[in-house]
Write a structure and sequence with these properties.
GO terms for molecular function: ATP binding; metal ion binding; pantothenate kinase activity. It is found in: Cytoplasm. It catalyses: (R)-pantothenate + ATP = (R)-4'-phosphopantothenate + ADP + H(+). Pathway: Cofactor biosynthesis; coenzyme A biosynthesis; CoA from (R)-pantothenate: step 1/5. This protein has about 250 residues and is of the alpha/beta class. It has two domains: about 1-80, 2-Layer Sandwich (Nucleotidyltransferase, domain 5); about 85-240, ATPase, nucleotide binding domain (Nucleotidyltransferase, domain 5). About 35% of the residues lie in helices and about 25% in strands. It contains seven helices and 13 strands. The chain has helices at about 35-45, 60-75, 105-115, 150-160, 180-200, 215, 230-240; strands spanning about 1-5, 10-20, 20, 25-30, 50-55, 80, 85-90, 90, 120-125, 130-135, 140-145, 205-210, 225. Strands 1, 2, 3, 4, 5 and 6 form a six-stranded mixed sheet that branches. A five-stranded mixed sheet has the order 11-10-9-12-13, sandwiched between helices. Strand 10 (about 130-135) and strand 11 form a beta hairpin. Helix 3 (about 105-115) crosses helix 7. The longest helix has 23 residues, at about 180-200. The chain is globular, with a radius of gyration of 19 Å. It starts with a strand and ends in a 5-residue tail after the last helix. The structure holds adenosine-5'-triphosphate, pantothenoic acid (PAU) and potassium ion. Potassium ion binds near residues 8, 104 and 126.
Length: about 250
């Protein structure tokens, strides 16, 4: 059994995996007090006999505390912490400094390239929104990074005197109240980023959406889209199984 951890800037997602089969994934806000204790309770009944595989784009301290917990619970497990590289599992990285690419982006691209043959445009709608374009032959053409929906809303509140937002649903229609105008404004910004980028590409690309806010966006896009909740965990699973040079 492997344990897969995807530590973003807001949430930690985890799932157990055996021979490529990922069980139901779980998510928690690891900045909340008590999160580590509840993870420990959830993990006590699990036996990680092979890899503890971790992708983290958070602070080192968060990663270190989870490594420590894992190694206490399963002293025999192997720690697998993939890094972005120039090429792995058929994908070649467009970055001039490949190791600077976020590991969550790299894993999502590797999973998408291996699970959805053909040209893919991978969009991860998390704390940040990232978009990466990978050709059918595995060549990464590059990507875009912009603030996620929550970060955009918070940025508005932090930089203005009169703006406030509420937790309301997203749409791209024009709003007639401040909270609607903000929710739909930030949503339209992300929808626009995706549709604009796809329309500029030289060929057809399958759009694959992942991340905590992806489910809000799938129905609002005017292009066809595949929603894959666990793309980063699936990338970790590929790393657990295989030889990156293949
Ligand atoms: N139960 C939930 N608790 C918190 N956020 C949620 C929940 N469900 C959906 N979300 C949304 O998910 C978003 C975070 O997405 P996700 O977990 O993919 O980000 P992340 O991986 O931590 O970020 P990043 O990888 O960009 O650093 C939040 O902005 C929030 O809007
Ligand atoms: C962009 C985020 C924050 C998205 O999680 C992460 O992938 C990251 O920290 N990336 C490093 C910078 C880069 O990918 O260019
Ligand atoms: K992420």
């Amino acid at each position: 059994m492997n344990l897969l951890l995807d530590i973003g800037n807001t949430r930690l997602k985890w799932a157990t995996e055996d021979q490529g089969q990922i069980d139901e994934s779980h998510a928690c806000d690891y900045r909340q007090p008590g999160c580590l204790a509840s993870l420990e309770r959830a993990w006590r009944g699990i036996s990680v006999s092979r890899n503890l595989a971790i992708a983290s784009v958070s602070e080192k301290q968060v990663l270190d505390s989870l490594i420590q917990l894992g190694q206490t619970l399963w002293p025999q497990c192997r720690l697998l912490i993939p890094q972005a590289s120039a090429a792995a599992f058929g994908v070649t990285n467009a970055y001039q400094q490949p190791e600077k690419l976020g590991i969550d982006r790299w894993l999502a691209m590797i999973a998408a390239h291996n699970l959805y043959p053909g040209n893919v445009c991978v969009v991860d709608c998390g704390t940040a929104v990232t978009l990466d374009v990978v050709r059918a032959d595995g060549r990464h053409l590059g990507g875009l990074i912009c603030p996620g929906l929550n970060v955009m809303k918070q940025a508005l509140v932090s930089n203005t005197a009169d703006l406030m937002f509420t937790q309301r649903s997203y749409d791209t229609e024009l709003g007639s109240a401040t909270d609607v105008a903000i929710a739909n404004g930030v949503c339209a910004a992300v929808i626009g980023l995706i549709e604009h980028t796809l329309s500029k590409l030289d060929a057809d690309y399958r759009l694959v959406l992942t991340g905590g806010d992806a489910a809000y966006l799938v129905d609002l896009l005017r292009v066809s889209v595949s929603y894959d909740r666990d793309l980063v965990l699936k990338g970790l699973s590929i790393f657990c199984r295989g030889d990156a040079n293949l």
